[in-house]
Amino acid sequence: MDINNTLNEVLVKLFRDINTLEERAIRTEEYQDVTANDMHVMEAIGPEGTKNMTRVARELEVTTGTLTISVNSLVKKGYVDRSRSEEDRRVVLVSLSGKGKKAYLHHQKFHQDMIEAVLKELTGEEQRVLEQALRKLTCFFRAQS
Amino acid sequence: MDINNTLNEVLVKLFRDINTLEERAIRTEEYQDVTANDMHVMEAIGPEGTKNMTRVARELEVTTGTLTISVNSLVKKGYVDRSRSEEDRRVVLVSLSGKGKKAYLHHQKFHQDMIEAVLKELTGEEQRVLEQALRKLTCFFRAQS
DNA sequence: GCAAAAAGGTTTGACATTCAAAATATCTTC
DNA sequence: GAAGATATTTTGAATGTCAAACCTTTTTGC
Lengths: 145, 145
Prior knowledge:
The structure is a homodimer.
Chain A: H1 3-26, H2 36-45, E1 51-52, H3 53-60, H4 64-77, E2 80-84, E3 92-96, H5 98-120, H6 124-144
Antiparallel strand pairs in A: 1-3, 2-3
Helix pairs in contact in A: 2-3, 3-4
Chain A binds a DNA duplex through α4.
């Protein structure tokens, strides 16, 4: 059987399974009200300091209108703080609240645990080749854009 | 050490944006009206023969109600044919139209190009190692879900 | 046989996410 | 200080999703 076909099938399935797993990991007992989208927004805002709406929207590649709606919900749920800049009253600054930082770190830990678990399954040689392949994959998608 | 970072980056960025990236590749001049969701539905229906709604919905892991809406749109756009089974009048059979098959093959080519980009710089031995590694990971993630 | 239960799909109502374009408020420039 | 630029929110429309109610048709149990 052709390695091309095998890889195609495996990659498609793997991506789907990992996404499913990640979605499931985000909604834990403690963070039932956090959607995958919420987590992505929190990741873009980042755990340190503040960012304005335009910058976060650019990082997420969504319009600021879309981000406004996401942030509305995150503020209401208490994960994000929103305030107006004093220097430029047009600018809105967002940052993670204490609760938001905790949720963010919780998710980071999930990523780390998952990576550790995955690497334990593989030999050193397999790890090396996998890394090379994933780098190539990232390049491929970057080149498309 | 670096495998860790690569995996994390892939996990965070590539997997998150995979839908957007694929959609960008799907929407060409010829197939402007095909969304990423449309393509996933067409993949689940498959290029050969017919399947009933329940089976396709199960493969996509969505409700049949959701699939009905997706298929409505695909039928209207001319990518999918829908008919009632003669043996069991409850059953609705869906299949790709000529246009649907063409779009499907176009997307398969995108996948092929992706695989080629990844494999290009690996030796035959490395390709075997990669395949082995991905198989292990598929098993691993399957077991988690 | 026939009534009740099961099965396959569709419809409905609700919500989340998204964008483009209009609206609002605040700078900046000339 | 008026005109234009910038940052954000609001509005209106589309897509994608589910659960639950609702048809049709088939199967089951008596």
